[in-house]
Each structure stands twice: as C-alpha cells, then as structure tokens.
Design a protein that fits this description.
The chain has 534 residues and is of the alpha/beta class. The protein folds into two domains: 388 residues, 3-Layer(aba) Sandwich (Rossmann fold), CATH 3.40.50; 106 residues, 2-Layer Sandwich (GMP Synthetase, Chain A, domain 3), CATH 3.30.300.30. The chain contains 16 helices and 24 strands. It has a six-stranded mixed beta sheet with strand order 6-5-3-4-7-8. The longest helix has 17 residues. The protein starts with 5 loop residues before the first helix and ends in a 13-residue tail after the last helix.
C-alpha cells in the first residue's frame, strides 16, 4: 500500500503546530510549587505566565509590532527571562546586548539591530543617555530597576493589561539576534528563529537528561545560570529550565560571594559558566566549611584544564564539559564521564547532542565542521556568511580530533595553533601543562614571529598567591620533561614565560589572546634564536 502524501490527506481543520517559543510554555502553569527567584522577588510559574502577558501588553503600548526589535541591557534577572519569552512570542525580535562592550560598540550593535525599544538597567543610564542622539530608530526606552521605582519596569508591568492575544505565525520567524564576541574586528550579528530555538531546547534537554548520575539536569534540580543572559541565550538553558518547570534562581551581577550565598540559601544544584568563573567560585569557597555538593556545573567557552576539574571534584562540584559557539546557538556537544576516568578525558568537548552532525574537515587542517537545525544561517554579510557555511557545513574555526569512542577533543583554535620548526604546536596543550603546576592558576600561550622558526610560543601565567613563586626555568622544565617523554613536541617549550597579576578578558570572560599577542610582539626573542633547535 502506497504511503499517502501528507498534504493530500490532511484534515481541513488539522492544526499544523508551528514550533514557536510560546509552545515551550505548554503545561508550565501546572508547576505550582516551583519558583523563579530574582532580585528579592519570588514568582510561581502561573504568575510568570501572567507577567509575560503584561510585558507584551506594555510593549504593544510602546508601539512594538511583529518584526520590530526590542533590545535589552540587563544583568541576569527575572526581567531578562520574561523578555526571552514575551518579546519573540509577540512576533518581535529580541536583541540581547552585551553590556560589557564599549559604549561605541554598544551603539553600533543597537543601530545594526534597528532597535525600536530599549529596555535598560539603571546601571547603564549614563551609556544610554550618551547614545540616544545617535540612535534615530530608537523610539522608546524602559528603565529597569531592582527597586520599586515609579515609572520603571515593575511599576509599569503591574499597570499593564494581564491578557495579550498571542497568535501563531511562521515558525521560521526570527526570534532573537545578538552579536558575536570575537577578538578580531567588529562583532558580527547572528540570528535565530523560533523553530531553531525550540529544536535546540528539545535536543539540549534530551542530552542533559541522559547524562550519567550527578551530571544530568531534570525537573528536580534548582537552576542558577552563571553565563550572562546576553550571551548566546545563556547557552539556551533558561528555555530548558522553563519548559521543565524547574526552580530558577537569577543572581543579577556576578559576584562569587553572592553566587555561593544563593547556592546555599536556594539549594542550587545545576549551573553553567566559563572556566574563569569556576576558578573564582572555588577560590571563594576555600574559606567555607563543608562541601559544595551537590552542584553540577557545565563548563565551556574555552579550554577546560584537567587540573581545574580535579580541584572542583575535591570541592564537591561535578564538572561537565560542554562545547558550542555563538554561531551554533550554542550547544553542540556535552561530555559525559564514567567513574575512574582521567580528568583529561572528562575535559573533552564531549559527544554531539541529538540532531547534531559533526566531522573533521581534512581540507582545512583538521577543522571541526557541524550541521544542526539550529545553527545560524549567516551574519547578514554575504561574504562572511559564505565563509561560515562553505561546502554546506558550518565551519567552527576549531581544530579537533575524534577519539575512538566518538568523543570530540578540541586541539586548538585555528588562529591560536602555532607553526614552529615545521611542526604544529597546540597552545592549549602547553597551557594545560603549565596550569598543572601547583603554583600556576591560569596560563595563556600565544605566538610571536621568528625569522628562523616561523613562530615561537610565548606564555603568560598567573601564579597562585599561597605558594612560592616559581621561576621561568622551573616552569619551562615542566614542558621540557613532557617533550622528552614524547607527550608534546620539543618545539612547544616557550621562549618566554611572563608572570602577570591577571590575564586580559573578553566581554564574556574568555582570555583575550589578541591583547596578549600585542604584548608578546614587544618581547625580545632569546639570544639563542639563531642557534640550536629549541
């Protein structure tokens, strides 16, 4: 019997069920006991849904219509979560603004996004006031405050109608936009549709639910993000948490003491963040009695040193490595580990989550390329979009290897790998060896040009405060030892190791190697530059 075509047999009143962000809320009203905690306030899920209607009504009064862009400048809060849903549910576009960018770059992204309404925390009043005259498309602003100030968000929400007629529309409608945080050139704008975000939410929730015990995320958890909500939808986890009806805790501006206090008070069990923030949490927790368990933290954004995993494990934190980027919406892979596995295995990028295809491109030095239904389709600039999707695969710019069990291991960024003495040297491998030294808490390796060797590695390290300061030769000997054992190239021994109080950061907490390269370019090469092989 032939299978009939769907369109030939569809009932005239059949519901096509578009994949809209609004559909993630189906059934959340039944979660009467779970709360959303933020800025001293607590909301049930039914109240949260009511507030989404009120916010949409408020924005409609300010002239927001389908296709308009609403920009948000805020710390992690219930307000941001409400914007994640209410703005795209109206058919409008949510622009999440990286508040750590410079004033002029913030102005650039607001103009490029065509923001009609800007919702901003009072902390950014000076920036907004200075930009408004250069934002001709901006028609209205709404000030956000943690207090009950007249004329601000909370007061306006309470006055707005409690019902808004959310309607269906094309699931391919753009829901969100934001700008990448690359370390070269101006930020690039990426876009995500309702369909893409719904599929990402479903795939991420399935992947996290099927993690081994102590590494998963489910309705019984208490969720607190430690990734800014302006950055790649806070890795998409707020959508997952809301769909599941999980208790959510939003910490505002990040401070290790505040995060630890909320973890203790609210019973937080699941978070995510970059390695730098995990380091800050562990340092702050040293003065606290007891253990941080239970607390699962997904760590991504940059290389995860195995020694950091081991230190976190001793403190009671279950660390799960994750991999993604702004262009991938973001989650592509999540690591999973079994008892007794080495930290070096646990620090891998992990395994592709459902619906993700990943492979190594042999034509581009082993670059990881991926396909998934939620990847951004481009940057809004044709040439850059063509480069991103060359050959029908999204190019990550990460050099990777696939282990025998299918786990992805990121070797380095293409722009960070060092070609020296005719060999490729991974900066991340050198960094991991340096951080393994008990006197080093952070390390970054970049290259400098060399007339003889092409490039040479230069290291920048941050030393621990509670141990004797190591010498340059002592740290260099660590790399030399591993080179002698064949575990790393002999060309990987850094020519210079510089001690610094801290390392420069990008706006999302990654080490800014662009700045370090400028510093390294001013460094004199060793006097033996033209002598023997390193």
């Amino acid at each position: 019997m032939a299978v009939p075509k769907l369109l030939d047999t569809m009932g005239r009143e059949a519901y096509a069920y578009p994949l809209l962000i609004r559909q993630l809320l189906v059934g959340v009203g039944q979660h009467q006991s779970a709360e959303i905690v933020s800025a001293g306030r607590r909301f049930t899920y039914p109240k949260f849904v009511e507030r989404l209607h009120r916010l949409a009504s408020l924005l409609a009064v300010h002239g927001v219509r389908p296709g308009d862009t609403v920009a948000v400048m805020d710390w992690d809060s219930h307000r941001y979560l409400e914007c994640y849903f209410a703005v795209p549910m109206m058919g409008a576009v949510l622009q999440t603004v990286n508040v750590r960018l410079t004033r002029d770059v913030i102005g650039l992204v607001l103009r490029q996004a065509g923001a009609k309404v800007l919702m901003y925390h009072s902390d950014f009043s000076t920036i907004v006031d200075s930009l408004r005259k250069n934002l001709p498309g901006l028609q209205h602003v709404i000030r956000l405050s943690d207090n009950e100030d007249p004329g601000t968000y909370e007061a306006l929400i309470e006055e707005a109608p409690r019902q808004f007629p959310f309607e269906d529309f094309d699931e391919n409608t753009i829901a969100t936009t934001f700008h990448t945080t690359g370390t070269t050139g101006d930020p690039k704008q990426v876009f995500f549709s309702h369909r893409q975000l719904v599929l990402h939410t479903l795939a991420a929730s399935a992947a996290l639910a099927n993690q081994p015990e102590g590494q998963s995320f489910s309705r019984s958890d208490v969720y607190m993000p430690m990734t800014p909500m302006f950055h790649v939808h806070a890795w998409g986890i707020p959508f997952v948490a809301t769909m599941l009806g999980v208790k959510q805790v939003y910490p505002g501006r990040y401070d290790p003491g505040t995060l630890l206090a909320l973890k203790e008070k609210e019973g937080v069990t699941f978070s995510h963040g970059v390695p730098t923030l995990l380091r800050m949490i562990l340092d702050a927790a040293r003065l606290m009695p007891g253990t941080l368990a239970p607390w699962t933290i997904v760590v991504g954004g940059s290389a995860l040193p195995p020694d950091l995993i081991e230190e976190a494990t001793r403190a009671g934190v279950s660390v799960v490595a994750g991999y993604g980027m702004s262009e991938t919406g973001p989650i592509i892979a999540v690591a999973r580990s079994e008892p007794g596995q080495a930290a070096s295995v646990r620090s891998r990028a992990g395994f592709p989550i459902p619906l993700v295809q990943a492979r190594i491109d042999p034509t581009s030095a082993g670059e990881l390329v991926v396909r998934a239904p939620w990847l951004t389709q481009g940057y809004g600039v044709q040439a850059a979009s063509d480069d991103l999707w060359k050959g029908g695969w999204l190019h990550t710019q990460d050099i990777a290897e696939v282990d025998a069990d299918g786990g992805i291991r990121i070797v380095d960024r293409i722009k960070d790998v060092i070609k020296t003495g005719g060999e490729w040297v991974s900066s991340t491998e050198i960094e991991a060896l340096l951080v393994a030294h008990p006197a080093v808490v952070e390390a970054a390796v970049v290259s400098v040009q060399s007339p003889k060797w092409g490039e040479r590695p230069i290291a920048f390290v941050v030393a621990a405060r509670d141990v004797p300061l190591p010498t340059e030769d002592e740290l260099r000997a660590v790399i030399t030892k591993h080179a002698a054992q064949g575990r790393i190239s002999r060309y990987a021994v850094p020519d210079r190791i510089h001690f610094q109080a801290s390392l420069p950061r990008t706006s999302v907490g990654k080490i800014d190697k662009k700045i370090l390269r400028k510093n390294a370019d001013a460094v004199d090469l060793p006097s033996g530059e033209d002598g023997a092989v390193p």
